[in-house]
Amino acid sequence: MILAKRMANLGTETAFEVLARAKQLEAEGRDIIHLEIGEPDFDTPQHIIDAAYQAMNDGWTHYGPSAGDPEFRAVIADHISTSRGYLVSPDNVVVVPGGKPIIYWGITALVDPGDEVIYPNPGFPIYESMINFVGATPVPAPLREVNEFRFDVDELASLVTPKTKMIIINSPQNPTGGVLSKDDLEAIARLAIENDIWIMSDEPYEQVLYEGEHHSIAALDGMAERTILLDCFSKTFAMTGWRLGYGVMPAELAAAIAKLQTNCTSCVTSFVQRAGIAALQGPMDETRAMVAEFKRRRDVVVDGLNDIPGISCLRPLGAFYVFPNVTETGFDSRELAKKILEEANVAVLSGTAFGEYGHGYLRLSYANSVENIQEALRRIKEFLT
Ligand SMILES: Cc1ncc(COP(=O)(O)O)c(C=O)c1O
Fold first, then answer.
1. N or C terminus: which one in the chain shows less Cβ crowding within 10 Å?
2. Cα(347)–Cα(22) distance, rounded to whole angstroms?
3. Is 52 contained in some domain?
4. pLDDT tier at 43 (50, 70, 90 boundaries)?
5. Claim to verify: residue 131 and residue 232 sit in the same structural domain
6. DSSP letters for 262-305
7. pTM strictly above 0.90
8. Alpha-carbon span 18 to 293, nearest angstrom
9. Which residues constitute the domain of residue 230?
């Protein structure tokens, strides 16, 4: 079969490939511990599920406006105004199926072939994939362990050229758990304003923060007009399978992205949007309990990894991932991830699944029980000693 040439530019998410291999091993009778996939192991809170049932029974089973249900857009606008601290109106909001479509459609709407887009590396693999897909040039900005996996803002500035159209930031970060400081965000904002650059601020882990408070670059002076803020319900409300997310951006751009949605999906499932209203307006205790549990697990996994010869691991401030340095084990990270799955029955990802600067690292998701995490650590330690 001869696919269109553009398909050669499309990347993928290795987590789904490793998950498939792990499932295959399970089907052969092996007992695999899953630390590869980035989704909360908690259930969606019951009041959100009830709201979806209610909405279906109330007839929310038809097409709706492409930009999203007006009431939902207003609730999101209020939520962002309060949580991020800048004024957002409903026409700044587009509701989409999950977080990913904002990455794809935001880049599609703003970036021309030949433009450059700076993105975090290691980082969520979909950024580089989408930049390549639209024919633009991906420019990796390294996140280094010595800098606690934050950008070196001077290095970031040195990557800017007259062709730079967009900088993508993500804090708290997947895969490292790194968090950008307010000073980092201010320096990036100055860079964006001085060089007329768009920012895509990917913030799905806004609630999964263990110290301090979340800052959004969109709230800084002069930034709302050049920022696409992305958030979704996947992590905060354990709703990965519902496919619900949104972007917040200047109204003219929101209208363009709604038009892309008209062309692709028409609109997001109507009763799922009603469940989204219940999520944002309902109690947050289950989210808070989930984050407290993630913090407990973070400490178990970090302490356990640091106890394994050849591995050292920073204690991340957010998200539910750790990114241990495995260079001292003597294994290449790809080979190590493969061996840990095939020989120790623990599914983890190589840091290289997140870009070239992931060499020498693994990524473990600790969205699994403390008991399973401890058993996984035992198996990895046994394998390496
Ligand atoms: C940094 C980051 N951005 C976006 C997404 C996409 O979220 P969704 O599953 O809602 O499309 C993820 C999911 O893992 C992520 O880690």
1. N
2. 7
3. no
4. very high
5. yes
6. HHHTSS--HHHHHHHHHHHHS--HHHHHHHHHHHHHHHHHHHHH
7. yes
8. 25
9. 62-281
